[in-house]
TrEMBL record:
SUPFAM superfamilies: RCC1/BLIP-II. RCC repeats lie at residues 14-66, 67-118, 120-171, 172-230, 231-283, 284-337, 337-388. InterPro entries: RCC1-like_dom, RCC1/BLIP-II, Reg_chr_condens, Ub_ligase/GEF_domain. Keywords: Repeat. Residues 16-384 form the RCC1-like domain. Pfam families: WD40_RLD (PF25390). This is Secretion-regulating guanine nucleotide exchange factor.
Length: 395
């Protein structure tokens, strides 16, 4: 009898789920049909668990525990780094030069930035129309990951915005490249010149952070965010939707976010969608601000006709969140091991079975019995690695 009970004892199963927009096969499901509920996905290297999941405009990327990079989805500019420009409907292994292992990957609209484990090198693939690959401007795009050779020290954090990118080096400096902010900067700063970091097609040191030691970076449609070791946040770029918490329409240089707006608390993590931001503080509180048109702030907004909030406000449902991920206008969070979603839902990326925007964070029904481990977002799709309990008997 005791042996039977042991055989029936629940065992653990890791499952990768994807849902939302799938026009280019970015969900890895062997088809191009949108999914309004989480679907289990098979991927190469399934004998390994995953360390990170994320997405871009129409592609997705996974990092395994051993540092392998798996990719699928839109590939018209070579953003999957597979050496060709055909769409890929299942997750495939992206081989990096020299068999480098991957520490972090960030996907922009049509390009990918890759940070390696061993030496803190940065590689990039995909479109270079805006200089977002950080290599020679004469390279229109690359189907192979190219080494960004201009860094003189190891890099510890990278991020891809829509058409620009940022990196933090080992000494705490922040570098920016890609001209995705240039047109807005020219209009806002005219007749004054545009600072070099907003117009450079190769990594350029961002001024104004000399007294700060950067820890990580995040980027949106046309704005940038930097988190320092001391728990401060610096913001710059477009302020069209109040995402910089200032009165100016555009900030060319990093400007500190007043911690009084976050109840005086230091920030432990900063996340960015296209036009909104989310901060986690040392007390595990979660604040949101910026554009609110699709419910992406996860709370009721009463200012600016309900379309934006220029003042951070706490979302109490998310208190204690262990992970948060932002898509273009939707979000995921893990709170108490449950996967929550909210925001834009036109393609079903909130995973609740509907196409209606979700105005407040809600647990995803089909993942109620799963323990959320990792989450990631693309522009209009979602990914989650979960643990599910199952009985061996009868399986």
């Amino acid at each position: 009898m005791r042996q039977t009970n042991q055989m029936e004892r629940s065992t653990v199963k890791y499952t990768l789920y994807t849902w939302g927009a799938n026009s280019f096969g970015q969900l890895g499901l062997r088809n191009a049909e949108d999914q309004v509920k989480p679907q289990g996905v098979e991927y190469e290297q399934e004998t390994e668990t995953l360390r990170a999941v994320t997405g871009g405009g129409g592609h997705s990327a996974l990092i395994t525990e051993s540092g392998k990079l798996l990719v699928c989805g839109q590939n018209h500019k070579g953003q999957l780094g597979l050496g060709h420009v055909a769409e890929v409907m299942t997750f495939q292994l992206c081989q990096l030069p020299g068999s480098r292992r991957v520490q972090q990957v960030s996907c922009g609209w049509d390009f990918t930035i890759i940070l390696t484990v061993d030496d803190g090198e940065v590689l990039a693939c995909g479109s270079n129309s805006f200089g977002q690959l950080g290599v020679s401007p004469q390279t229109p795009h690359s189907t192979q990951p190219l080494l960004i050779s201009s860094f003189k020290e190891p890099v510890v954090s990278v991020t891809a915005g829509l058409r620009h990118a940022l990196a933090v080096t080992d000494s705490g400096g922040v570098y920016q490249w890609g001209t995705g902010l240039l047109s807005q900067a020219r209009r806002a700063l005219n007749p004054h010149p545009v600072p070099a970091h907003l117009s450079s097609k190769e990594p350029c040191l961002v001024p104004g952070l000399d007294q700060a030691y950067a820890k990580s970076v995040s980027a949106g449609f046309v704005h940038c965010a930097c988190l320092t070791v001391s728990g401060e946040v610096f913001l710059w770029g477009s302020n069209k939707h109040g995402q910089l918490c200032r009165n100016e329409t555009f900030l060319p240089l990093p400007t500190v976010l007043e911690l009084s707006l976050l109840n005086g608390e230091k920030v432990s993590a900063i996340h960015s969608g296209w036009t909104h931001l989310i901060a986690q503080t040392e007390s595990k509180s979660v604040f949101t601000w910026g554009r609110a048109s699709y419910g992406q702030l996860g709370r009721q907004v009463t200012v600016n006709d309900g379309t934006a909030s220029t003042v951070p406000s706490e979302v109490r449902t998310l208190h204690g969140a262990t992970r948060i991920a932002c898509g273009s206008e939707h979000n995921l969070a893990i709170v108490g091991n449950k996967v929550f979603s909210w925001g834009w839902n036109e393609h079903g990326m909130c995973g609740d079975g509907s196409l209606c925007d979700v105005l407040q964070p809600q647990p995803i029904p089909d993942l109620q019995n799963a323990k959320g481990l990792l989450i990631g977002c693309g522009a209009g799709h979602s990914l989650a690695l979960c643990l599910r309990n199952r009985k061996d008997a009868g399986s």
